[in-house]
Amino acid sequence: MAQWRLQYIGENTMILLFLLAMTVSQSAAGDSADCLPRSFGQSSVVCECNSTYCDSPGVLSLPSKGQYLSFLSSRAGARLQPGSGTLRNSSTGAALVLSINPAQKYQRIKGFGGAMTDAAAINILSLSRATQDQLLGAYFSKEGIQYTVVRVPMASCDFSTREYTYADTPDDFELRKFSLAKEDTEMKIPLLQRAQALSPQPLSLFASPWSAPAWMKTNGDLNGKGTLKGEPGNKYHKTWAQYYTRFLDEYRRYNLSFWAVTAENEPTAGLLANYSFQSLGFTAERQRDFIARDLGPALARSAHPATQLLILDDNRLLLPYWAKVVLSDLQAARYVHGIAVHWYLDGLVPADLSLGTTHRLFPEYYLFGSEACVGSMPWDRGVWLGSWERGEQYSHDIMQDLNHYVTGWTDWNLALDQGGGPNWVKNFVDSSVIVDASRDVFYKQPTFYSIAHFSKFLDAGSQRVGVSSSHDSALEVTAFIRPDAVATLIVLNRSEEDLQFEVQDVGVGVIPAVSPAHSIMTLLWPRE
């Protein structure tokens, strides 16, 4: 796959580069296809896709024993650029040695993905059918980056064009008027069905609610500071628990089943005064009691007893406190399977203090990254087309999470427009895919490739193993053994220097490598 180092200087230049890329791709890279780069003045490029062409890593063909594959993305313009070579029998003499230790075994991977919000669906459907297929294929097909996880909001969130729930009729405690919205039946469900048809394995869907119907809440509004009326165990909490099972029932009618639900999206948001969009407040104690008395039993008695329940679904700085409160209660803990974390404010608390401590206290409950996006903070709001720095933020956070027992990572909106929406409250952010419906194209951001270095190569069931460095360096690393016994090493270099290193896998061989400045690389080699 060609590596482009360029400035965008006009449409004619881009056409020539596109034709050259097509030639190189078809002649040298099999079923892979090169990035059609476009610069918008940021530190790197986006890859432009249209109805007839989109870059692709292609179907992964694993190396034979004694061989290795590499895939490189960089600020300089590489996007999953493939390489290969032969493992050596002895050291190359590199000063920096990364040693794999398969005897050190940690968590197994669940998967990686993004969220099918109303906004994402609107943007995908704004494209021609052929371009929609390219976008969905880029995410979900075996030729693409093989997302296996999709988050689905239960009713509206800020990334909707209106406020609604599925049970807006006051005092409908039996949920007789419960009904999915047109956003579900006309947009999200058809797209999820198409994504599943493209995926070589079943997708793991998980759902999260933002707000209960206004008539169930203390503030009588979908937005702002408010909780469910009364105490857990009463009719409001029972009805809200049944709302979950009704949602699962309705989606199953469309042959869509859910791996998991979360007990509430960002439960602390609904405790904040003047919160501007959909929310429902829970303290850790209140979530504990709601799960023990209402939600846990409702799911267990439903037609979906295999659907797992995740707590928190909020910033990891709330850990380990939140886990201690909920999981120390035997009645609540029996219904819980995992702990979902968001990435916002991660820099305020060390990963080992939050994630590591939580894992050591409750190793039987898995940790899972359920939401992340860039462009959400006041000082860097909105879409930055081609920002490598934002891609590095993703790579670093995924790496840090995986190295502290997290089993997967979920991006926020699968696609947004160039303004970072639509969003009814104007809470615009960035996305890994940005749609320009006026040109019937979409742009794959550096963040898309940051996730790809994990999602494409770490199959479900891949197990993290030990990796050590001969001395301190700027490289960040994580290592896994896939279910097919292929070792996978991911190397992130956020420094300004190219760094030479070698990988040592005792009894298997040595791989010489260079990590270019501001790059991420995935290496794969068979161990058997």
Strands in their spatial order, largest beta sheet: 4-3-22-19-18-17-5-20-21
What characteristic shape results from the CA principal axes?
A: globular
Compute the average pLDDT: 94
* Helix-strand category: alpha/beta
Summarize the amount of helix as a percent range: 25-40%
**Counted beta strands:** 22
The main pleated sheet reads as: 9 strands, mixed
Strand percent estimate: 25-35%
| Separate helix tally | 11
Structural Rg: 23 Å
Taking pLDDT < 50 over at least 5 consecutive residues as the criterion, the unreliable ranges are: 1-30
First-residue to last-residue Cα separation: 28 Å
Write a short abstract of this structure.
This protein has about 525 residues and is an alpha/beta fold. The protein is about 25% helix and about 25% strand. It is built from 11 helices and 22 strands.
Description of the molecule:
With 528 residues, the protein is an alpha/beta fold. It has 11 helices and 22 strands. The strands form 3 sheets. The protein has a 9-stranded mixed beta sheet, with helices on one face. It has an 8-stranded parallel barrel with strand order 6-7-8-9-10-11-12-13, surrounded by 6 helices. Helix 6 (284-301) crosses helix 7. The longest helix is centred in the N-terminal third of the chain and has 18 residues, at 11-28. The protein is globular, with a radius of gyration of 23 Å. The two termini are 28 Å apart. Residues 1-30 have low confidence and may be disordered.
